Amino acid sequence: MTEQRDVVIVGAGPVGFVTALGLARQGIDVTLIDAEPGIVNSPRAAIYHPVTMELLDRLGVIDDCMAIAFHCHGLAMRYPETGDIIAFNYEKAALPEQKYKFNLHFGQHELAAVIADHLARLPNTRVHWNHRLEGLVQDGERVMLGVETPDGRKQISARWVIGADGARSTVRHLLGLPFEGFTWPERFIATNVEVDLRALGYFDTNMVIDPVNWAVIARLSRGNLWRLTYGEDGRLDEETMWERVPAHYRAFMPPETDYKIVQAAPYRCHERSAPSFRVDRVLLAGDAAHACNPCGGLGLTTGLMDANALFQLLGAVMHGHVGEEALDHYARERRRIFLEITSPSAQHFKKQMSEPDPAVRAQQREATRKAMENPSTATMSAVISRRIVGGPLPVGAALAL
């Protein structure tokens, strides 16, 4: 028997869950499927900027997030070759209209768990684990999905399908869409480590600027759990990654430092985008639509802003307030924002962190120092985040959330 559903979201990560909750809050029937047996806990992006916090506030989950997250009020740009540390205060950098003037740090799996709890309280919602998408066919009116489950293969017929299933998206693959762009030559190593880095002089968020030993180091909890992400030569054997971790750590802390690695994950970073974020009744969001390197925390922000735009526009279409052309606006505008704002900004941060030329590094260091001292330029990171949100959506007064 074929299941009849209104919206099926493929991928139960933060983008999929946020999209599901946004639609469900408008009374729309939502089904979320994922090939994994449950919410995945792995070292991925964990920094939530004020624009994302505003979204979580509108969705009614901000209090739960605030209760479990670490509240970060600033960062430091660190230059090991000179010993310079340039501090950056988020409140100083805030725009006048900002409600929140700090960042939240907590795992994507924790956000997913919070939203899953809220989603479960709403009618006509369901989350199916161990459901692997294997087929997708459209006929102009509905989308037929072939899904492998623990009980065998089943068919799901949906009015709309959203692919939020990551950079290796099965949805994108089944649509026959390429993933245009490039992959960075470095392998990124994300580690969660228990260590007292505050005692070593680290701020709660740190960007280490060095041609070899660059890193993003951020506190993940109110205790001593930290995220330390660094890069290594992508040609090295991934299987021997663990053997090299102690040598990399010596660049960031004295050899006698006590630490305990809780998790570590290697991954390749991309600057890629699908050529279209909509194919008839299937839409792409988050890493399924685009992917960038994690320097600056813009990938997660962009994915969640995709979800923000998508649940509003698709909700308005399904309630008959606007025509389906609103979804073309989504596809066109979110792709533009990634190509013109997110990816160039992320590439700039990555290149600045690992700049090989010492003269250029010195120029960038002094430019950063002056920017932090000038209120008009100190707000640039907040401006970038606000631009990633995008402009007004074509839904008008019909918006339900």
From TrEMBL:
Superkingdom is: Bacteria
Alphabetized UniProt keyword annotations: FAD, Flavoprotein, Monooxygenase, Oxidoreductase
Name the coenzymes or cofactors required.
FAD
GO-annotated molecular function: FAD binding; oxidoreductase activity, acting on paired donors, with incorporation or reduction of molecular oxygen, NAD(P)H as one donor, and incorporation of one atom of oxygen
Q: Where is the FAD-binding domain?
A: 6-337
Q: What InterPro entries would the database entry show?
A: FAD-bd, FAD/NAD-bd_sf, RIFMO-like
Which stretches are annotated as coiled coil? none
Pfam families to which the protein is assigned, alphabetical: FAD_binding_3
On whether Transcription is a keyword of this UniProt record, the answer is: no
Q: Where is the signal peptide?
A: none
Name-wise, this protein is FAD-dependent monooxygenase
